[in-house]
Amino acid sequence: MSVDPMAYETQFFGFTPQTCMLRVYIAFQDYLFEMMLVVEGVMLKKLDGIPGCKVSPSQIRKCTEKFLLFMKEHFDKLFAKMEEVLLQLVLNIPKNVLLPEDRVQEQYPYSKEEFQALQDELQQLQQQCRAEAAAEQALRAELEEQKAVKAELEKILQCFDGLENICREHGAGNFKESFALLTQNSKKLQDVLKDVEEKSRKMKRHDQLA
Which stretches are annotated as coiled coil (predicted)? Predict the structure, then answer.
């Protein structure tokens, strides 16, 4: 069998020419074996009808096997020649023939350097696509976070609205003003607390010195 990969022929036919020849060889070989079995069966019937024939079936089988071996040797030689002719003249695409799907290469030829440049550009575009996809994912995550924060703020505003309504029901006036006043009083209390703590520390130091 030929060891030439014949890749272009495989692209055109959809199968390797060597595989085709192997199947043809197996088919011929199987037919040869079947034919020899038929011949052997006919010989057994003919000899069985001859009175006093001393040829046994085992002798006929040996003769059949010898003849089969002889036929196979000659068949292999003939098939080798047939394979060479078929691979060169039938299953071979000439070097000057271009398949229809490859004609675009003839219209737009390019060098190895140009092809490498296209490969590099393709890699850059792929990296940009991945970066944009990651950025989009980050933006989606940030948007979801903003939605969660907005929901929390809406809850706080609802809480303030509820407090303001409570203040109005109890005659406390405007909630914002009350809240501002509460903040101022809280700041004054913090200042007083700091002043008391400072005086307490000074008294402790005075007691220690005394």
Answer: 108-206
Contacts of 84 (CB under 8 A, 6+ apart): 2
How far apart CA 161 and CA 172 sit, in angstroms, is 14
Rg from Cα positions in the chain = 50
Cα(97)–Cα(18) distance, rounded to whole angstroms?
Answer: 20
Assess if residue 151 is contained within a domain: no
Count of domains for the chain? 1
Distances (CA, A) of 25 to 9, 69, 124, 167: 19, 16, 51, 102
Q: Does residue 109 fall inside a structural domain?
A: no
180 falls within a domain: no
Q: Residue 45 belongs to what domain range?
A: 7-103
Residue 72 in domain: yes
